[in-house]
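The methods section describes the discrete structure representation at length, but only in general terms. What matters is that the chain and its backbone geometry are given together, residue for residue. Nothing conveys this as quickly as seeing an actual entry. For illustration, here is how one protein appears when written out as sequence plus structure tokens:
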Amino acid sequence: MPRPLSTPRSTGRFVLTTAVGNEAVRAFVPNPLPPTPPVDIDGALRHRLDRAHVMLGRLDALTSLLVDPRLFLDSYVRREAVLSSQIEGTQSSLSDLLVFEADGADDPSDDVLEVSNYVAATAHGMARLREGFPLSLRLIREMHALVLASGRGASKQPGEFRRTQNWIGGARPGTARFVPPPPAELSPCLDALERWLHEPADRVPPLIKAALAHVQFETIHPFLDGNGRVGRLLIVVSLCADGLLREPLLYLSLYFKRHRSLYYELLTAVREEGDWERWLRFFVDGVEETATDAVQRAERILERFAIDRVRVAQIPRGGESTVQAYRALQGRPVHSVASMARALDMSIPAATRALDKLGNAGLVAEITGRRRDRLFAYTSYLELLRTDTDDPFPT
């Protein structure tokens, strides 16, 4: 039976703490998961869950159709890194990231570094899971250390849980929109979160677990900086750890970005009213929408690859080096001659010839207009990747 809306469930307690400038503030300490009383998974929410699982199954099945899943996944992760960082105010675009990775700029912007860090954190998290390492506080710290490895957050204790009070919104804690737990309360909160992440799938559906864990992580806000990015990364890593996905193909950053005001409203409703059900409906709808978009986008990309493989095979005297260069562009759609030579362990002249042949066939475009240090982009692929990233890629 649904719980009465007139009797909100308690989701935590307020404690008085001293913040910056000895200002006394009320900080919120969340109760451990699962919520009490239990979340009401009624017929409508269960139907939503079923639809989301169907789309996740289709998305997961796509990885078996890829000749080399890493090629597609590397580009898809970069798209998510841009979107997740944009939510935090980062102005870097997908093209900025790809050009930086190909060009190896000596003085990249902080925005580009932050997006590049997110890519590294995702790769590290997935590599650890494949090694059999559990999703744990240690792994969360490791991913956070990479998210803040350079750029503006490098001085904010990368990889370490905070030892001082933080707050969300407002110029100081006393005017903040929300004040997370004091440092002294962090350890029990995080230990309880880790126990929740280890709940077996036969006891807690992975989608429900990931949805509740995301809110709990954002409420605890355990780091001085980077909580939003790590909290969103935690969703896909959790789903992969629980076997719902084999590869990190589901990302909700675009969905959260499109519904930013509602997203924050629902987080507040959980904390203040215990309205987990409304949050779950929003989250599960987002999973279905995002998985559907990912399936459709992946199918279009696979079609593009199939068409272009035929075009590559028809290049006169293309040779194996041209085929290899094309495959490298599937994984990293922007390359310099030097980065292509490194990727394929070939000489600079061989990499130049391969890229020029792909360019003459209309498969790649040189995007700098320079005679030296040229950059080549697989533009038709990039068009499919950069949709919704506010990215006017140069052509």
Summary: The chain has two domains: 12-296, 317-386. The mean pLDDT is 88.
